[in-house]
Automatic annotation (TrEMBL):
Pfam families registered for this protein in UniProt: tRNA-synt_2b (PF00587)
Keywords for this protein: Ligase
Organism: Streptomyces mauvecolor
InterPro entries: aa-tRNA-synt_IIb, aa-tRNA-synth_II/BPL/LPL
Protein name: Aminoacyl--tRNA ligase-related protein
Length: 284
């Protein structure tokens, strides 16, 4: 997991150390997919927001990010001695100020910060795409990256609303993958989203995350958070200001590229197929 990892190429893209520079054809395929997933949300009235890829570390700590996913965390700090450059590609610890910003490993965190201390409709839907960062134990081309793009559609409001949204999009994802000729395995994930207490017990009894795996790679997921984020960010709905439930549908865009390019041999051929399939699938 070093930045000095050998550079590889996927079509016109360059990939090294978990960082990908996508070429024009790969970028066009990624945009086609993202536009389609965004339109799925927009068709159901989802409002689209934009967000930064990093946050004050305390904001992420308030969401238990560093308790539940410490192995993925990346933080950012300024330089104590701006005049000194890195040595052998690294800054020494005594050159760095205490990290005060955290790089987010999931897109949906922005939605809960945006809605914090607000009252929402019981059937709220939000969508956004953002850059995510994960300090994985290894990287693998476009399949597993340090920095990647994730589109999410997030349901906020009643528990029934979150489950209806997840069910609809699960069906639509499976339909899309079927038309693309990609064999999918839907598997319950074991991410330790909740640590201890009643939520952790519920997670063991009823999984809160299901992944859509193609060729052993999770390219999308549906996630139930119950009222965790509603409580932490004080999001409510209705006249009685009931704490909101949340759930989300997530698409790892570069991972979709990985399986499609591998299947079709090039981004151009994959894009042609995706365009045809999206036309056949029709609007959401």
């Amino acid at each position: 997991m070093t930045a000095e990892a050998a550079e590889s190429a996927v079509g016109g893209s360059r990939i090294a150390g978990g960082l990908a520079l996508l070429g024009p054809k790969e970028t066009a395929l990624l945009r086609l997919l993202d536009d389609a997933f965004r339109d799925w949300g927009a068709a159901e009235g989802a409002m689209e927001i934009s967000a930064p890829p990093l946050y004050p570390v305390q904001q992420l700590a308030d969401l238990d990010v560093y308790v539940n996913f410490p192995q993925l965390a990346l933080v950012v700090g300024g330089l104590q001695t701006p005049g000194n450059g890195p040595v052998e590609g690294r800054f020494a610890p005594d050159q760095l100020a205490a990290p005060s910003l955290g790089l987010s490993h999931a897109t949906c965190f922005a939605v809960y910060r945006y809605l914090q201390d607000r009252q929402v409709a019981p059937d709220t839907l939000v969508t956004l795409v953002n850059r995510c960062f994960r300090r994985e134990d290894h990287f693998d081309g476009l399949r597993r990256l340090l920095s990647f793009q994730m589109r999410e559609i997030v349901a906020v409001g009643t528990f029934e609303h979150t489950q209806e949204v997840i069910a609809r999009y699960r069906e639509r994802i499976e339909a899309l993958l079927g038309l693309l000729g990609l064999e999918v395995v839907v598997e319950a994930a074991t991410d330790p989203f909740f640590q201890g207490g009643a939520r952790a017990l519920l997670q063991r009894m009823a999984p809160v995350k299901y992944e859509f795996q193609v060729d052993g790679l999770a390219i999308a997921s549906v996630n139930t958070h119950r009222n965790f984020f509603g409580e932490r960010c004080r999001i409510s709905y209705g006249e009685e200001r009931t704490t909101a439930f949340t759930g989300c549908v997530a698409f790892g865009l570069e991972r979709w590229l990985a399986v499609l390019i591998d299947r079709h041999g090039s981004a151009d051929k994959a894009r042609t197929t995706v365009e045809q399939v999206l036309h056949e699938l029709g609007p959401a």
